[in-house]
Amino acid sequence: MAVAPTKYVLRSYVRRSRITDVNRAQQPGLRRPNDPPVLILTSLATGPKHGHALSKDISEFAGVALGPGALYGAITRLEERGLIEPVGTEGRRRPYRITASGTAALAEVVGEMRRIADVGALRLGLPLSGRFA
Amino acid sequence: MLRWYPASWRHRYGDELVALMADTLNGEDPSPKLRISIAWAGLRERVREAGLLGTTKPAAERIFAGAIAVLCAWMAFLLAGGRFAKYSEHFEQAVPRTSRVISVDAYNTVAAAAVLGGVLVLIGAVVALPSFVRFLRSGGWPSVRRHFRRALGISAVTGLALAGLAPEAHSLTPAQRNGGSFIYSVAFGAIVVLVSTSLVLWTVVAVAATRRLELTRRVLTTEIAMAALVSGTMVVMTGATATWWATVASSAPWFLQSTRSGSTASVFEPQLAATMSLMLVATVAALVGMRRAARSWREFRAG
After folding, report:
1. Higher-confidence residue: B28 or B175?
2. Per the structure, how many domains does chain A have?
3. Which residue of B has its CA nearest to A27?
4. What are the counts of helices (DSSP H) followed by strands (DSSP E) for chain B?
5. Do A52 and B54 touch (CB under 8 A)?
6. pTM here?
7. 8 Å CB contact between B270 and B83
8. Per the domain annotation, does A46 fall within a domain?
9. Is A86 a domain residue?
């Protein structure tokens, strides 16, 4: 498959970014890969977890140590927006799971990150992993 | 550590957060860094709960939160303004006649803007009065009673202290009133603390009451207009105070240091700098509150 010229890719990316900026405005906190909400949604994509399990998992896959305050601040926002929901209780611990809206929001953010990664890879001459591959 | 968070948040997430910290700390004491991060996160939740952060609260609540931020900023500005009024007493006599115009104009601008701001705050209060009466009639008094009694108690003590000090002040010379009498200075300092505390406590009463009011669209529109105008007066007063300082510093720096007329003196005066800083902080807080209200207003108007 012929690789699209960088100029075209960038123009196309900018156009799409404008569209996703509107969507992102409805989902504040889902902007950068290391934003706590993105990390939490990514972690919950593999199944329900409580606070400590989330913290450990995020530390393992992202190398980010989320403090309890930041973690629960993000959990509060995600639950308010209906992107995650509690699943019963385990003593004082409460596991959370990702909702359908949460999955959709995460898919959108991951798609956008992949597009940026592809543009970067294209510029650096690295193998592409996303839609331009 | 959970006391940093609002009660509603603690009720919903408190146990989970405690469990997470217990799991994370594994029996060790929380580090200062962890304590600070929890305090910061808790304060953020409080600010969110007040409607000053995030978009989870309805637009009307966010608008009103912005207006309340302006009110709080105004109260802080009053403290700075009171200090400025005391500091600038009789400055006209110290400034040479030839360079008096700008400093006098700047001072008069501060005074006029202060009166205008006070009137606007009063209009805002009067407009919200029917809603407040409805709130009291619907059984809202217990939710503000504690704050009200506390503010009233401190105000009564302040009034008595003022009544006791006023005759004493009249019997003193201007030099004694301005630092010459140690006892008077201490008593005056105590009065300043009492007046400031009263002001803060009445602000708490106003915030506690207004947060629970249900305002009509018309009242909300008026409140946001008043808040915008009050913010404007604060900007004007801050600018005029800075102008006053600059002109007095260039023409009569000895006045700023209370030294002999015509002597060489530094133009920097810590008390005036602190007053100016408080004015600036309050003005910025008011503008932030206004920005919040204005942004939410567009959403509110769109329905």
Report:
1. B28
2. 1
3. B55
4. 11, 0
5. no
6. 0.73
7. no
8. yes
9. yes
